[in-house]
Structure formats: structure tokens, C-alpha cells
Design a protein that fits this description.
Length: 189
């Protein structure tokens, strides 16, 4: 098969996948997770249901792919925030604040709990843990972060503490939670 033909097929597959996931995101935002069906996605994208089934075996496969894309986008956002910070301390604070705000935005999505059980979530959680651990290592090196607890344990502390932001109803409350978490990280804290 000529290379150009393969590139065209790959571009078409990617376009169908992106359109499907975009439609899924829109339907979830408009009517909630339980409202998403193969028929509604097909209607929204203009893709026939039979074609949709060629790309995804069922609605669960679409929802997992959509969720995986969302989780990866959040991780990329945190990496970008880290990379834009001027120093290790600012990077740690900015990433923890952004993570807490992401957690807060996803409060009350009880139906989404089933989506948080896949391998993509476990992999993303490992990536998040490594990101936070590396930021903490930078803080230990500069003397801003305590060194009596391993950075791995402190990363777990941060992630679990800030995951509680999903129960908070204001940005001010999230900021207070981040402040308390950062205080627990400080040398002598």
C-alpha cells in the first residue's frame, strides 16, 4: 500500500476518533455521563453508528478513551505549569494549586467513578506521583522542603491531601487547603 494512502487512512481514523471524543465531551458537559449513547454520539458527529462501532466496540470503550484523553490533558497542563515556573519552590506551589483546582472541578461526578478504575488512570497516577516527587526533590535540594520524610511519601501526602479539594465549594477553600499542604512540606514543618 502506498505511503500516502496509509497517511490518509491514519488521518481519517484520527479525525473519526477526535470527532467521537469531542462529541462525547460535549454530551457529558450538556447532560451528564449517563446521557451518552452510541446513537447520540453518531448523531452529534454525523458518523453512522455502524462506522462508530468499527472504531469503538461499545459506549464504555468511548467513555474510557474520552476519560484517558482528559486525564492526559490534565497531566500536560501540570507539566506546562511546572515548566513555566521561575524556580523549584514556585513550581511546586503552582503545580499543587493547579492539581487541587482540577480536583475541585471534578467534584460530584459520582457516575465517573467507574472511569477511574482503568489502567490509564493507574498510569496517570504514577506519572503525577513522579511529577510531584521530582518537584519535592527540587525543594529538598534548595532547602525549602523537609528532608526527614522521603519525597515519595511526601508526594503521596500531597496527592491525597489535595484530592480532597473535590469536596470544596470555593477557590478560597482550595487555596487554604494548598497552603496547609505546603506548610506540611516545609523544613521544620
Amino acid at each position: 500500500m502506498p505511503r500516502l494512502w496509509n497517511e490518509t487512512i491514519d488521518a481519517h481514523r484520527n479525525a473519526v476518533r477526535d470527532a467521537t471524543l469531542d462529541a462525547t465531551a460535549a454530551l457529558v458537559a450538556e447532560n451528564g455521563l449517563l446521557s451518552v449513547t452510541m446513537s447520540r454520539i453518531a448523531e452529534r458527529t454525523g458518523i453512522g453508528r455502524a462506522t462508530l462501532y468499527k472504531y469503538f466496540r461499545d459506549i464504555d470503550a468511548i467513555l474510557v478513551a474520552w476519560h484517558e484523553r482528559q486525564v492526559n490533558a490534565h497531566l500536560e497542563q501540570l507539566i506546562k505549569i511546572r515548566d513555566q515556573a521561575q524556580n523549584a519552590e514556585a513550581a511546586l506551589e503552582a503545580v499543587l494549586m493547579a492539581y487541587a483546582l482540577i480536583a475541585q472541578q471534578h467534584r460530584g461526578s459520582g457516575n465517573a467513578a467507574t472511569l477511574h478504575q482503568g489502567e490509564h488512570v493507574a498510569q496517570a497516577h504514577r506519572r503525577l506521583g513522579h511529577l510531584v516527587r521530582d518537584l519535592l526533590l527540587g525543594g529538598v535540594a534548595t532547602g525549602h522542603v523537609r528532608d526527614d520524610v522521603t519525597p515519595e511519601e511526601l508526594a503521596i501526602y500531597c496527592i491525597h491531601a489535595l484530592g480532597g479539594a473535590n469536596a470544596l465549594h470555593s477557590k478560597a477553600a482550595v487555596q487554604r487547603l494548598v497552603s496547609v499542604t505546603l506548610a506540611g512540606l516545609r523544613r521544620g514543618g
